[in-house]
Structure formats: structure tokens, C-alpha cells
Amino acid sequence: MAENSETVYICRCEEVTREEVEQAIRDGATTIAGVKKRTHAGMGLCQGRTCRKLVAGMLAGSRDPAKILPATFRPPVRAIKISEIAQGDEE
Amino acid sequence: MNGQADVIVVGGGVIGTSVTYQMARKGRKVILVEKGDLASGASGSCDTNIFLQSKNPGIHLQLALASAELFKSLREELGHDIEYHPKGGMILIETADELKVMEGFVARQQQTGLQVEIIDRREASKLQRGLAEHLVASTYSPQDGDVNPIELNLGFARAAHRLGAEVLLHREVTGCLIRNGRVEGVETAQGPLHAPAVVNAAGAWAPLIGKMAGLELPIQPRRGQLMITEPVAPYIAKGMLSASYIAAKYNADKLRESKSRAVQLGVGLSLSQTEKGNILIGATREFAGYDVRNTHEAIGAVLKNAMRLVPGLGPFHIIRTMGGLRPYTPDGLPLIGFVDGLEGYFMAAGHEGDGIALSPVTGKIVADLIVDGKTFMDVSALDPNRFT
């Protein structure tokens, strides 16, 4: 894939391009999780805060927006050190 | 697309897609039907470890050894990078009691043909940094490996599709079509699919699918929770488990009796690192129905356990957690074979935490049995009728 100043990144954390997201949709992704599974968009440090809406917008091009399942939300709400979690409850 | 095939496979995880791929390779017309997306069940909630060492000596380990052979050429075969690495694996041993148990386990594994040995703490530290001072010993097998389970799942599906299989996603099976004691297909929300053979590869949901055919399948969902770090430079050199992981896997009944909450949760260490750099830290073994959520207590218990065994993990940040359902069976072996009294109904489910490792060989065995009526090894111990 040739990268140049015109390359559009949808997910900055995982460096997933618009073309890669479009390919994932062609491959059968119909949900935000489906795009994530196939491209890693949304798996990075910000956990989709930046790209979630962009991906949903791209899915809406080929799917009824009301049918696009939102991404799941899981702990933690922000990145946290393993040592902090491991000692946390003993305070 | 006319809804007619030689075989219908229910379930789009690694087992279902592996079976679909192998059947398509044999020239059969296959329809794979999945209620969600590919890798939506256990297959999408794993770490990267494919351990031979965690398999029970005997047929379980024999299956895993055969499967490990198949992994070697799978990337080329599928034309898809599954990120397979034969990096070797260690089971960390913390106490003298654990050492005694593991010595027996290792001896039986060696008898089955696995290359594995017990090494001391100093040798273990040469293989992996950051290990706790108090570790008594470790095992090591060069035959353990790792793989990207989602890419494996996608790879099987893509290759199957290329060979002519139909992959129907977001299509829920709602019933089984049966006439005069033989299977004729499945009912779905978007209309029936017809085939003289149906493979139930629905993992933790296999009992729900089985009920539609009047079957009571002894498969129970067993939740595992995993923690995921940000991508970091290569740190986990070998796949790692702990002796307590093995104990939790095979002694579900004993866990309930413990006074320790961590033991009740089935906590045991699993540690792996993806090619991209994320470290995956597990795991629990809980009977919690079909609830895949993460719990505060399990996150704490898993990470406390990990820190105790590998204190070097401290500085890394958790950015995400995952929960998934292993399909648990009473004897720890999957159900593979035709179901008595229902002609054409084939089981391929119940792999507990071994689905990724056993997916290549399961696909091969299922396709062999359905198309040729025989396969390369004796799988009578996996007979789905053995519990009745």
C-alpha cells in the first residue's frame, strides 16, 4: 500500500487507513466491532474515542445507520498501571 | 445462493471456519451460518498462546500434537498471515507441592510424545526476565507456540470462501429441520437452509443449538477474563502459564471448596504478547452463565496473581479487558462425531480453552469423518454419545 501525504488515517492510534476500513466493509464487516476485528481500528490507546464516529459514518454508507451496533465498552476507563491495580484495594 | 448445500456448519468461530475450510477443500458445497460476526465467541476473546503443555496427556495431547504439525504450513495454505510463532512455552511453578504435581504431569506428557522438561529458576530466568525470586522451578517445551486467533479465524473463513463455501453472517439459526429421524437442514430468521448434514460448531452456544434438535448436550459456558496492555517492546519471550492454571482447568469441582476467592475464580496465570506488542494477561475460569462482562474483583485477582509471579509486569498499563466463554465438558474433551438417533447431525464443540490449538486438527477430523467415514487417528474417546 503506497503511503503519501494524501493517505487518510481513520484510527490514529493503530494507523488504520480509510482504504483499510473500506476493505474491511467489503470483507463483510457491518458493525464497529467487525471493522475493529479486521483492521484493529479502535484497539489502541484511546480505545476508539477518536475513530469510533468516523467508522460508524463509513458503515452508514452501506448500511441503515439504525442497524449499526455500537462498540462495546469495557474497563478500564483510562489506561492504568498493572502495579497500581495490583496494590489498589489495600489502601 | 439457493439455500441448498451438502453440509451446513453452525458457528463462525475457529472450529466452524476450520471445518468449513476442510470440507470445501474436499469439494463439498458448504454453507457456514453464524448469528453474529466471525470470531464473536471464545475465538474472539483469547490470548495468543497455543500450548501443547496444557493438554491432558493421552488423546487430548495427541490431538494437540497433530494440530501443531498442521499449524506449521497453515499460513501458506490459507494465504493469510496468522502470526504463528513456535516460540516455546513455560509453566511457572511456585511451591514444592506444585512441583510434585507438575513432575507427574510432565512424565505423562513425555510418554505421550511431548518434548518437555523441568528447569530450575536460574534457567527459567535466562529464558524470561522479570520472574519472581521465589519461583521454585518451571517447565519448558520448545513445541509450544503462539498465533493470532482472530487472524486464524478470518484466514479459515477467507480460504473457505475462495474454495466455494458460502459464509452467512448475522444470520441466526432458530430451529433444526428434522424428518423421520434425519436432519434436513436448519431454520433461520431469514428462511431455511437445506442440507443432509449439519455440524454443530457453536462452542458455548452448542447446547442452545442442540436443544433445537431435541439434544441435551453437556457443554457449559466457562468464562475467562483477560487484561490487555498498551503495545510495548518485546518483553514476553515465551508463552507462559502457571501450575495453578493447569489445576484450575482440570479441577473445577475442587475450586468451589477453597477459602481463597482467587482460587474460587479459577485464577491461573496465562501470559503472551502479540506481534504488535500488546501483552495479554489472564485468566479466570468461572461458571457465570452466558455473562461475558469483566468484574472488578477478577481484574484485581488476575493482575495480583500476575504481579506475584512476574513482578516485571508492574510498569505496563492496562488499556482494555476482555471476557469470553469457553465451552466446558465434564471430561475436558470435545464432542466430535455423529449423534446417535439423529442421522446427519454432527457435533464439533466443547473444546474448553483448547479451541485455537485444536482448530486445525478438528477441521481435518470432521471433514474426514463426514466425507470419508474415517480419519487418521482413533477418536472414539470424543464420541458425543459418551455421556448418555
The rough form of chain B would be described as: globular
Quaternary structure classification: heterodimer
Order of helices and strands of chain A: EEHHHEH
Biggest beta sheet attributes of chain B: 8 strands, mixed
Give the strand tally of chain B.
19
Gyration radius from CA atoms of chain A, angstroms: 16 Å
Overall shape of chain A: globular
Gyration radius of chain B (Cα, Å) is 20 Å
Portion of residues in helices of chain A?
Answer: 25-40%
| Largest interface, chains and sizes | A-B, 26 and 36 residues
**Widest sheet: strand ordering of chain B:** 5-6-4-14-15-16-13-17
- Counted by DSSP, the helix tally of chain B is 12
Major sheet attributes of chain A: 2 strands, antiparallel
Mean pLDDT across all amino acids of chain A: 90
Structure, briefly:
Chain A has 91 residues and is mainly α.
Keywords:
heterodimer; A: 91 residues; mainly alpha; two-stranded antiparallel ribbon; 4 helices; 3 strands; 35% helix; globular; B: 388 residues; alpha/beta; eight-stranded mixed beta sheet; six-stranded mixed beta sheet
Describe the structure.
The complex is a heterodimer of chains A (91) and B (388). Chain A is mostly helical and 91 residues long. Helix content of chain A is 35%, strand content 8%. In chain A, strands 1-2 form a two-stranded antiparallel ribbon. In chain A, a hairpin with a 4-residue loop joins strand 1 and strand 2. In chain A, helix 1 (18-26) packs across helix 2 (32-39). The radius of gyration of chain A is 16 Å and the shape is globular. The termini of chain A are far apart. The mean pLDDT of chain A is 90. Chain B has 388 residues and is of the alpha/beta class. Classes of the chains: A mainly alpha (91), B alpha/beta (388). Chain A binds chain B through residues 27-31, 33-34, 37-38, 40, 43-45, 47, 74-76, 79-83, 85-86, 88-89, and chain B through 37-39, 44, 150, 154, 158, 167, 169-170, 227, 229-231, 276, 278, 281, 294, 296, 299-300, 303-304, 306-307, 313-323.
